[in-house]
Amino acid sequence: MPTLSILSHDADEYKRLIEEARLPGLEIVTEPAQSDIVLGEPKRIGDTLPQLLQLKWAQSIYAGVEPLVDPAQRRDYALTNARGVFGASMSEYVFAYLLFHEQKILQRIHAQQSMQWQRQEPGLLRGKTIGLLGVGSIGAHLAGTAKHFGMLVRGYTRGSETSTQVDGYYHAEDLLKFVEGLDYLVSILPRTKETDKIVDAKLLDALPSHAVFINVGRGNAVDESALVGALHEGKLAAAILDVFEKEPLPEGHPFWTTPNLYMTFHTSAISYPEDITKLFIENYQLYIEGKPLKYVVDFERGY
Amino acid sequence: MPTLSILSHDADEYKRLIEEARLPGLEIVTEPAQSDIVLGEPKRIGDTLPQLLQLKWAQSIYAGVEPLVDPAQRRDYALTNARGVFGASMSEYVFAYLLFHEQKILQRIHAQQSMQWQRQEPGLLRGKTIGLLGVGSIGAHLAGTAKHFGMLVRGYTRGSETSTQVDGYYHAEDLLKFVEGLDYLVSILPRTKETDKIVDAKLLDALPSHAVFINVGRGNAVDESALVGALHEGKLAAAILDVFEKEPLPEGHPFWTTPNLYMTFHTSAISYPEDITKLFIENYQLYIEGKPLKYVVDFERGY
Fold first, then answer.
1. Which residues span the domain enclosing B45?
2. A25: alpha, beta or left? (left if phi > 0; alpha if psi -120 to 50)
3. From the list B89, B144, B248, which residue is nearest A117 (CB)?
4. Contact at 8 Å (CB) between B209 and B203?
5. What is the rounded average pLDDT of the residues A253-277?
6. What is the distance between the alpha carbons of residues B124 and A290, in angstroms, rounded to a whole number?
7. Would you say residue A226 lies in a domain?
8. Does the pTM exceed 0.95?
9. Residue B301 falls within a domain, yes or no?
10. Are residues B231 and B95 in the same domain?
11. Which single residue of A87, B140, B155, B226 has CA 20 to 30 Å from A245?
12. What is the complex's ipTM, to 2 decimals?
């Protein structure tokens, strides 16, 4: 009989939702050592791994599973992550800032504060080009919203070209060609060895100076001091950062005071129990039927 | 032979675009009195009307044509306005502010300024309800963007129910039922006698206190002192106003300093010569074929 431990700060909510679903044969237990299935935050699952002697399947409620793909950790179970559920909220986050920039909302607020009737024309997303660094399910959703607003969409991926909303794909050594002429660059990359500091001084130099960079993937993708330099020198118009090399961002980090840098606090993709429970139910059906699970993480690749 | 006068501050650009189109038989003249067609801003056309002795057709480059539907003006010509071209830019404007509000962008900026790592969850448009006061071509476009973001859409109209993206229509005396429970109320109403102060104290009382009001239609739709009062009393969360009873907004007007009031300066729908020229070309073909023009304004109705 399958037994589930819920290792999450939202455990009560998950318990309620999963009990409501009356999954056949599933027992929710409070003692992790007794469970063959766990659901929760990667960090909590990682901390509990040594006790999970019967573990067969772990469902992460986040997309990023760094604490579980660390080579020092065991890999003798199926790890699935949350996928396909963050696209809509990520899209709201990213397009909030794209439109905030085009509509010159801060300038308008300042004009109002100084009681100036200032008829400065806003910019438009229509006709502009967005580049997506990484096109998984989140990137595909962003591409859909970009097309809704009449934008051109470029995608940079390892090799996959799955989203049909992307107008042109770039791979491997075409990175600088990919960023050339972009109005917006959005990184949605996971933390892997290959993505380390992919946004470096060279890439920032290749971006037009009117471009805006947004990072909603992982902080490791950015050479932070190169980005600070680029913003100070006006080599790009703005950066919006939701993720950082170290979180929370340390006191005294130059990002706090870099001009045209807008930071948010790892809030671009909120994990909603309703969404994650749907994924879990879907996978639980496959699990009890002995079929391959969905959203399986490749421990080597890291996502 | 049809002759055209261009009465616009963008006359050079319009001349270039129309000449490029090589419209059959059309001559562009510099003397308005000699033209049977005029293209331009309603105000300029209105000021020139007494000289336009041969006028048969006037194409406005704006949607609002108040200076031309004034009962004191002559009405012995076909007046067409700009329609179907503002939806995309209006949508960028409106959703910029909806997302700005949900994402708590100002709060995040303040947290950054005080160097606080503040993990406050953003709100989402998904699942929220937007009410459109007036559903013409702009309202229909806004409805499409709202559906893209997973919102529920209500429309309040005189009687038409043309947009299929609207989930529910309201008419006539159902106004207070229409605003009940809304998260966002957007007025796209034209200036007519019927729209005068439609957004009054009673309507603002019926709106939930967490709601946000946006006016991109005309300033006459709002009882300005009722709105100031509602914002001071916290009866609504915010107002974003692009249009006003009197523009530019007079010095000393309470709007300049009302809390949670964001004003822009009649910039939500920019008239792009490329877009308007397409409309003009379309109508010119109908004109020379003697067919009914598109986007004809009803002088009595006012739009």
1. 3-84+271-288
2. left
3. B248
4. no
5. 96
6. 37
7. yes
8. no
9. no
10. yes
11. A87
12. 0.93
